[in-house]
Amino acid sequence: MTTVQSSVNQAVQQLIDRQVAEGIHRGVQVCAYKDGERIVDAWAGVMGPDDPRPVQPDTLFSSFSTTKGVAATALHILADRGIIDYDAPVAKYWPEFAAKGKGNITVAQAMSHQAGLHYLPRPLTADFVCDWEGGLRYIAEGEPAWEPGTATGYHALTYAWVVGGIVQHASGRHIKDVIQEEIARPLGVTGEMYVGIPQGVEDRLATLESQSDRSAATPFPIPPDHDWFKAMPPDMEFTFNDMRIRQACLPSANGHFTARALARMYGALANGGEIDGVRLVSPERIPQMQRIMTAEPDRVLIMPMRKGIGFFMGGAINTPMGAYVGATGPRQTAFGHAGAGGSIAFADPEVGLSFAMTLNKMQPALQGEGPAADLANLVRRELGVD
Questions:
Q1: Which residues span the domain enclosing 313?
Q2: φ, ψ for residue 52 (rounded to 5)?
Q3: Alpha-carbon Rg of the chain, whole angstroms?
């Protein structure tokens, strides 16, 4: 791929250069597509706080929950082929999931964080997180925290085994293989999209600069027994820089991507499901990706969130501290996912736009506010689609 020379790209490059100089970013990549054409391809900064190598366009960034959107896309691809029915019970594909009152939970409900399976053991260990089959059993044997379908609470980590279990039991294929074979390979980004890194890419890994106090990432003071901490325990016995965690398959939280790869995937979804002659899904599938399943207050995130089938949607977000529009933008038909610390990727099909940002200096951001919103808003203004 050649370097993009558009005026919007120049504006983005200037902004991220300034953000790096001001210490907002350590290292960052930004990429965007409009109507199937790449219009932004910018990068700046260094690989980590103790790694002065400059970021490259193929640098791999651990992107936390931005991974969820890639995993959701894998499920939607299977749905587009008739392998998965959103409105069927999860137990149709995964009989063990029916245990403890979960027999009627639909795929769409599970994918929109309505199953009540957000909680995690404490302390949270690497052994637990890295045990794929153990994670599937944990979900299958789990008891909902509420009557499924009556509430919603962000499955920050457990989403990995929810989506992974549905995909695996419906298709007979591991979700990491579906992601590689149905998304990365057709799009030509096999070396830039991993959920669980392979050997041989270690020299391209950016190092995360995490907040020293994870509780500081909460939007406002909350009690220690709140669902926030049940879903995201502060007493983790590992970091996401640990190679064992990087190599595990955790399709809720440990995807390693370039902004190019994410923007290209969402570029197809913003363009009727196709880009450069490669079709991920049919045009008729896009409205299902835009289907809002719930907009109720989230018991974990403590704010109303529009959730689709695996995606978070655009539009204003109302919080106890006031309303704001995140990086995904003002249109509720936009969909994608942000990650802890500020990474984000999304499609806005109404205007044919996709956007992705990867970074390694974590920000106190939940849903694409802060630097991500500044950059995405800049792109929209330059294109006249804000």
A1: 7-213+224-383
A2: -80, 5
A3: 19
Q: Give residue 113's region: left, alpha or beta (phi > 0; psi -120 to 50).
A: left
Q: Is 214 exposed, middle or buried (0-12, 13-18, 19+ CB in 10 A)?
A: middle
372: nearest Cα among 358, 386, 353: 358
Question: What is the domain count for the chain?
Answer: 1
pLDDT tens digits, one per residue of 48-78: 999 999 999 999 999 999 999 999 999 999 9
pLDDT above 70: residue 144: yes
Which listed residue (63, 65, 112, 171) is catalytic? 65
Cβ–Cβ under 8 Å, residues 175 and 78: no
End-to-end CA distance of the chain: 28
Q: What is the CATH number of the domain that holds 255?
A: 3.40.710.10
User: How many percent of the chain have pLDDT more than 70?
Assistant: 94
Question: What pTM does this model have?
Answer: 0.95
Active site annotation includes 65: yes
Residue-wise pLDDT for 145-191, tens only, equals 999 999 999 999 999 999 999 999 999 999 999 999 999 999 999 99
> Residue for token digits 């736009």?
353
Number of residues written out for the chain: 386
Q: Is 1 part of a structural domain of the chain?
A: no
